[in-house]
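Working notes for the structural subgroup meeting. M.R. asked for a predicted model of this chain before we commit to crystallization trials. I am recording the input and output together here so anyone reviewing the notebook later can reproduce the run.

Input as submitted:
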Amino acid sequence: MKNIFGILQYVKGYWRFAILNILFNLLSAVFGLFSIAMLFPFLQVLFSDDSKKLQDILLKGKPQFHLSPASIMENINYFLASDIQAHDSLHVLIGICLFIIVTIFLKNLFRYLGMFFIAPIRNGVVKDMRNNIFKKILVLPLSYYSDERKGDIMSRMTADVREIEWSVLSSLEMVFREPVTIFIYLLSMFLMSWQLTTLALVLLPIAGLVIGRIGKSLKKTSTEEKEKTGILMSIMDETLGGLRIVKAFNAEKNVKQKFEKINNDYTNLMVKAYRRVDLSSPLSEFMGITVFVIILYVGGKMVLGNHPAMSGAVFITYLALFSQLIAPAKSFTTAYYNIQKGLASTERVNKILNAEVAIQDPKSPKTLINFEKQIEYKNVSFAYREAEIGWVLNNINLKVEKGKTIALVGQSGSGKTTMADMLPRFYDPSQGEILIDGIGIKDITLADLRSLMGIVTQESILFNDTLFNNIAFGMENVTEAQVIEAAKIANAHEFISQMPQGYQTNIGDRGNKLSGGQRQRVSIARAVLKNPPILILDEATSALDTESERLVQDALNKLMKNRTSLVIAHRLSTIQHADEIIVMQKGEIIEQGTHTVLLAKNGAYRKLHDLQSFV
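Returned structure, recorded in token form:
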């Protein structure tokens, strides 16, 4: 129930539409009631064989009108009796038929208007929910995604939100409308016969309990089905991303079998869920008719007894009203089933929306406009999950003076990338702190901190957009001249100029229309255009061929000029001229110094250098 209220929180922004929806649903129910309520006076007067009864009604004269069921019926009886005497029964029949047509038309008109105003609520809530999920995904730390499947997250953003729209929000109209209809009809029935209505109020909840037990089991099935959907999307994402390897290793059969197994499990769960959903309509109808038959029997005894408790006309009208309760009750039951099915998706979406954002802006941030002096790692230690993996970084102390180039080298898994990722606060230290110009980076807003930095990674992160927009990514009011200048510095202008549409050429998904060296030079151009005082270069040339590496390295040298650079490198030849080289092993700094000094030590750096010299 908590999750339902969570969804209804989104309705607050659309309260005007909600009020209009409730108003028109109320009018629809009232006109529906009028069309049925006309049965009572019509049956009582029109089919009365006793002309004396008509005369008695007329002799009493026009009754005074009071806002009560008895007064309303007396006035209707007098009006119909007068009309029958002035004309004939056929004339009254035509009038009543026309009245019923008008009331039914108004009932359905107002019902449509109710649905008309629920549409902005339904679609607006889904829009707001998608926006909130996407906003939350952007602010969640990278550590959150290391424990989650990308395909499962995409499933929550797409399939689960769509399920909420179809199952929960599509039921909002019924949830708003049917209770109003049921209340109005029950109130009218209670005024006609409180005994029968009390019996109905006892029987209907019993029927609801039977239906509810099946609805609860549907939620569990739906949860399992959503988890399978996430796994399916993960397999598809991994397969599409690694299709080259799948084919190269003849693994099509294994991948297909894995997918088919999960797909079969998913299909079986869907069949199970659909069968339970489909059971809701016939089951609710059967339970409703059963209650109707009981009311028919008890009410019949009240009419046919020696001392009738109600007239036949009243009983037939009562039954007509009760029969109209079955449809909204059935719709309400269907809505309940749909909501139960959608609750599983709601819980999965809420896992993202309620996830803790560990890396946030400080409440009282300090101002840091420019980088002036140095970066300092002070007693920094870090662990993703200490109990499982242990320390990734252990008691790191390092000072990086402004304008210096610091290179991080070491074996894979030594903590180089983690150390660099902590500077823009992709991760926060488990112990210790990082300072820029003596100010802890946790005391600076993320926007201010990251505005000081440019990052070029081993894998070029490009987007399915034009070259211009990829270079100008994240920046506003950028001119074409500025983009061209940045591309020239990055040695990218020449190949971009030869593209079909130049800088307006679309480079495809992840830049797959470009070569590896071209993608990397576009990434460097993006960093050049940002013009940051601090650079983080994470193995920016390690995946390139010799010619591409030369062009990229030349672009990097231009980029690093007069900037503070933190360079992660496997190829020692690319960082021999660094101001200081930091050698890391198992999360600790074991050596540091210039290329010449470290070679003279005959330590770990010399060993790495000699190994690469023989390659």
